[in-house]
Design a protein that fits this description.
The N and C termini lie far apart (38 Å). It is globular and about 45 Å long. The protein is 25% helix and 22% strand. The protein has one domain. The chain is built from 3 helices and 3 strands, in the order H-E-E-H-H-E. With 87 residues, the chain is α+β, with helices and mostly antiparallel strands. The chain binds zinc ion. Zinc ion (ZN) is lined by residues 25, 27-28, 30, 59, 61-62.
Length: 87
């Protein structure tokens, strides 16, 4: 499994830093948005970083397949400002 550059960059950011996550399935076109409440719930279930979250996500319309076989487009929206250093 070879993560794309953007995913790799965000891989170790925390789930609780996410504001929302847009998930689209490239196989069937189904899309949904995980909101703050969904993300906090995932975090409370032990999903700590973005990479772990990506492995958990699957299309609700398609049959279950291993993470490496999924064709999902993920667009994270990170909470603004938390990692920015004030000079
Ligand atoms: Zn699908």
């Amino acid at each position: 499994m070879q993560p794309r550059a953007a995913e790799h960059q965000d891989a170790f950011r925390l789930v609780i830093e996410l504001e929302s996550l847009y998930v689209a399935c490239d196989d069937c076109g189904h899309s949904r948005v995980l909101k703050l409440s969904n993300l906090r719930e995932a975090a409370s279930l032990g999903v700590h970083n973005y990479m772990q979250l990506c492995r958990k996500i699957r299309c609700s319309e398609c049959p279950k397949v291993p993470p490496s076989a999924r064709n999902l487009t993920l667009r994270p929206s990170w909470l603004a400002g938390e990692l920015q250093t004030v000079a």
